[in-house]
């Protein structure tokens, strides 16, 4: 009887282990599926709203590019200058829920030897700029220069990130600059900047 009880006990243990093993097998796919779903992220991209730069658009520029959906463009008279370029257009992010502008600054043909020289002159003229890092890019047949830097002044509690790009064309040169109220706003508006960069056309 003791032997029988022992066998019965082992049988119950084996049955419990088998149940646990089967349960573990059925749970495994769920455990594997969770990381897959949590790792999925939405692409940080901006939808096109309109195209500016061409004759008859909100701003006539040496190039054309797309503005983000809900952002509104307005031509500026060019009375404000920074280095060799003058402010020609402001694209306001406020209708899209952000505080900042994508600004286009232009210069006549021959204002700079190349895009890098133009961009360096633009950044140097901004007394609050520091830690500038320059790179090059190509898009739609255009070769340009890009810079990321930090801006600070007496009105700024903490330094903030800013970014700009420049291209030169036979019709003139352009610097497209993205600032923002602070670094958080700047980073939230980067998809609009990247949209403009990727859609630049002569």
* Largest pleated sheet: 8 strands, antiparallel
Order of helices and strands: HEEEEEEHEEEEH
Determine the CATH topology of the largest domain.
Answer: Protein Transport Mog1p, Chain A
CATH superfamily of the largest domain: Mog1/PsbP, alpha/beta/alpha sandwich
Under the CATH scheme, which architecture of the largest domain would be assigned?
A: 3-Layer(aba) Sandwich
Termini separation: 95 Å
Low-confidence stretches: 1-43
Strand percent estimate:
25-35%
Q: What oligomeric state best describes the polypeptide chains here?
A: single chain
The helix tally amounts to 3
Shape category? globular
> How much helicity do the residues have?
25-40%
In total, the number of domains comes to 2
What are the main properties of this structure?
202 residues; alpha+beta; Protein Transport Mog1p, Chain A; 8-stranded antiparallel beta sheet; two-stranded antiparallel sheet; 3 helices; disordered N terminus
Molecular structure report:
- This protein has 202 residues and is an alpha+beta fold.
- It folds into 2 domains: 41 residues; 151 residues, 3-Layer(aba) Sandwich (Protein Transport Mog1p, Chain A), CATH 3.40.1000.10.
- The strands form 2 sheets. Strands 3, 4, 5, 6, 7, 8, 9 and 10 form an 8-stranded antiparallel beta sheet that branches.
- The relative contact order is 0.15.
- The N terminus is likely disordered.
Protein topology:
Layout: H1 2-39, E1 48-52, E2 65-68, E3 72-75, E4 81-82, E5 85-92, E6 101-107, H2 115-124, E7 129-139, E8 142-151, E9 160-169, E10 172-178, H3 183-198
